[in-house]
Amino acid sequence: MNAQAQTILVVEDEASIASFVSLYLKNAGYGVRTATNGGEALKEVAAGELALVVLDLNLPDIDGIEVCRRIRQNSELPILMLTARDEDVDKIIGLEVGADDYMTKPFNPRELVARVKSILRRATSESRQVESEVIRHGDLSIDAGRREVRVVDEEIQLAPKEFDLLWELLDHRGLVLTRDQLLERVWGYTFAGDTRTVDVHVRQLRRKLGDASPIVTVWGVGYKVSPARDAVRA
Fold first, then answer.
1. Burial level of 37, CB count in 10 A (0-12/13-18/19+)?
2. How far apart are CA 27 and CA 182, in angstroms?
3. What is the pLDDT of residues 51-100, one digit of tens each?
């Protein structure tokens, strides 16, 4: 799918910001639809045919966190969250409810376009993964085609980037991957990103997987998966 075939929804109540974000995205070859509040955004998402949502955190009716949460209930549509706040807690909450990435205002619109391209490039490559590929690690199994994660017989609901991060680590089990490497491989960054993104997603994976979580922190370096004696690839 090329950029011309992809439509991005910009959810922003400040007209000036929505206008210049839309302009840069259109100049990059994307189709753009806009919404000025959370209610409109959810209707646009329900209408379908979107490749990605650029979602402002502060909206006049339903805030961006709740909009993101509702989208994630039944969709893996990529979400790039915008926030005017600098506090880490706002960024972390956005990632924990399933946003793929975030940017803090004011931002360089060229970087926003670069991040959009990275997210979409990764999403497109994921759609071409071998559907029969499954990795098992102890009681944990992850199915690339179905995008399902199970601990024994219980399915664990993961956000899209949580799934991608777990797959990447399991696919390289025994090796240490730095935060920068994970940003590049999971988020598709070819530029320096905020490595806190990786830490938040690891924390979420550990919380959701509990004792079945295979992720080990290598202090000062990154993360790895300790090899399990019965870890196999189907």
1. middle
2. 29
3. 999 999 889 899 899 999 999 988 889 999 888 766 666 667 777 888 88
